[in-house]
User: Fold this.
Amino acid sequence: MVIFVAPRNSIHLEEKYLKRKYDPILPKKAEWPVVKLARERKEFVIKVSKESENRVLGLTGNDPEILKEELETTLYREKLRIKKNPWAVDPDDEADFWGDVKKDLLTLSTGPKLSDKRKFKEYNKILYRITNRYAEEIASNFKTTYYKFTRSVVTYGFSRLLNAARVKGFRSVFSNQYTLQDKIQITGETDQLRDLATKGTIVMVPTHFSNLDSILIGWIISVLGLPPFIYGAGLNLFNISIFAYFMNALGAYKVDRRKKNLLYLETLKTYSKEAIQFGCHSLFFPGGTRSRSGNIEKKLKLGLLSTAIEAQRANYQEGKLDVAGKVFVVPVTINYHFVLEAPSLIRDYLSITGQERYYKENDEFSTSYKISKFLVKFFTKGSDISVSIGKAMDVLGNFVDEDGNSIDKNGRVINTQDYFISEGKISEDSQREEEYTNRLGVRIVEEFHRINKVFSSHLVAFTAFELIKKKNAKLDLFDLIRLPEEEIHIPYEEFKEACQMVLDQIWTLKEQDQINTAPHMSLPMDELIEDGLQNVGMYHAKRPLIKDAAGDLVTEDMSLLYFYHNRLTGYGLDKLFR
Amino acid sequence: MDSTSSSDKTQKPIGVVGVGSFGAAIAIMLAEKGDVLVYARNQEIVEEINSSQTLSGKAIPANIKATTSPEEVCKNCDLLFFMISSSGFQEVTRTFAPFLFPYHVIIHGTKGLCLNLPEGKTLDQMERMKRSQILTMSELIMEETVVVRVGCLAGPNLSKELRQGQPAATVVASKYNEVILEGQRLLRSEKFQVYGNSDIVGVELSGVLKNIIAIAAGALAGLGLGENAKGLLISRGMVEMIHLGNELGGSIKSVMGLAGVGDLVATCNSSNSRNYTVGYRLAKGEKLKDIIADMEEVAEGINTVRIIKAFLESTDLRAPITENLYKVLFEDLPISDALQFLMKYPFSVDVDFV
Assistant:
């Protein structure tokens, strides 16, 4: 293997980043909520199945006819899915199971006439069989040994690669000069997170740009000394053996996006809600899937987020009014120069939003080989990652103090349970909770923007794209992206001036606590641009932004430039170019 | 501190903040369903209610009590009706904020806008305004207090007619069904119909924007024009309200409902309305500052015209009635010229919003 050693810029070493060692908050693994859950997996699956059954019954108003219709719809969709969209992870007995459901439904509607009560009971039985199957399928297979092994592989393997890349010379593979923590910087409210994780239940909500994020976050959770978090991972990831292993090790439960039927969605939500109530810290990627456009998530998918609110309310209903029953929402942003999947993500985005038919490329994460290749690239080239941990909030988006008390805008302590009180009692109101979920989503997006860290590569990509847009003011986005690359050319001085203008505005925003910056942003402008250009989309075959022989700026791929530019949209910076 | 001190008594009194004409009418309607505790800043009014059970000399139901203490209202009531003029809204909300908790529900009945400007700026200095700098009253409540379950009342509800017990209807709007249901339960009676709407911002905006058209309606009457002109104005005014409301975040449907068209028709025919009077007197040749000088309270529409004008500067939207009214009010454009302009304006399509 030939390892290219990128020239290391001394600037990264100047950064005032303290590498800290965090002791585990729960040294005994038996105390980890996820271990306890794994021990009680069987009972837990039954509990989830029963509650999901009740929820579906509630939603169908206990009406046998509506229930029957819902069962038939589910059956129809599942048969269609099995036929049209089978995956490697699908269990072998799927066709048989649904065949049996079909038979039983048929017997009920054509067979001997039963009393309404009896009929309802029979439908109910089928319903339970389905929710039980779903709950079994969703439930995670966490194993402590897997976890330990994975963690050491990740830490050991990654740091070997890292040292090979950064310390020149023979035997560098065995050097310990660099550790993963040099590469991935964790900043923000780490102490508060650790502290609150011992008091209540954490729901962590990170931005999502790359499939690597889940592994990255898993590693960060472990570095911070936190017990593993559970999270819903797309079932498609379990198609790939290397990912399946990681996912199981990280306490992932499975989310199958192909199944959109009521029964499945209710079971999934119940699983998440019950796990939070069980005390398992959870991880939601609230953007749903990875950000296609490279934007920080503007509008969140709220499905699973609503389960945090439900769990909080249910805890209050069960009389858990103290901090032990409290759910804390912690936004996290992951900032990097480079997103491996950028080319296919942005093409997806453009083909969804635009008229242009882009042909679909292969997913870079489609095979274990490609992932391994990426990991080698990733750790052998100097491109740092920073992870910002935001302030913890209650499920209504109020910040909390060190004891987990919610604090309102005027610094007053308020009780979160008050939000669920109606006529003096804590009550369940799904419409109310839907609104609360929307509010929480808005608050998370606000926090994402606030804690997001600007990197040099974001600055150069944003500035270059906006300059090109300004020069072609008459073109819409799609025409702009189809501009022939050889026609695009930005003189260096003009570019530098524009970068300064954007940066000045970023400083202003930072003063207002609207955005954050990486330490390297205080470099002199020429060096900053140099750093940005070196890093922006550095592993792509076609680079989004480079200097030509004359020192002016050119692009090899407009849509990639657009993707990296998007990281700074949503701050009103584009108005500078009007 | 125990903020969940909401006691277990099933029937807590309903709070009514402000006993102007509309506030009094609502308090009397609420008293049919249960006890009412009203808040007034004026000590004499409170004493009059508590000692002689009258308000401005007119008898009111015995289960209405009064206080000057915001704390007392917040402690005793879970549901509060804010019935305050828009000019005093922010101040009153701030005095209540320290005593309000997330279990409180507030329904307001104020048709106006409030500004959320950078420190030290006033409306005069703002050439253009972004949506985020304009607050509807529900947005103001959520900005200033921890209450999230907020609703509003809007519709053709002339206080005088309500107190006479004439049949009428209102809209209770809120994002929360529980707020709508509670509002309906408390206000609905044989003579009062209550509709629900989940688009609270759209409903609030309808009540606000119709004030602009009401000034124009007064002006037409002042010019001595007839019913054809009024029909024209109401219809074009509704289109303008729809476009403005939509741009400000309300839905088209709300403008078409009781709070929009319903209130617009009522106000454009009501010579009692302050907004209508402003337009009428302008058309008769009086100057704006003289009209304002001898009105007890500023007509809300004047303020709304200025805010919407500044908002229009930050959008690509055209709103010919508002823009011309602005010129009449603040740039001395003669009303007849404004009318001329509107008659020549290329409104080529009758309905372009559905």
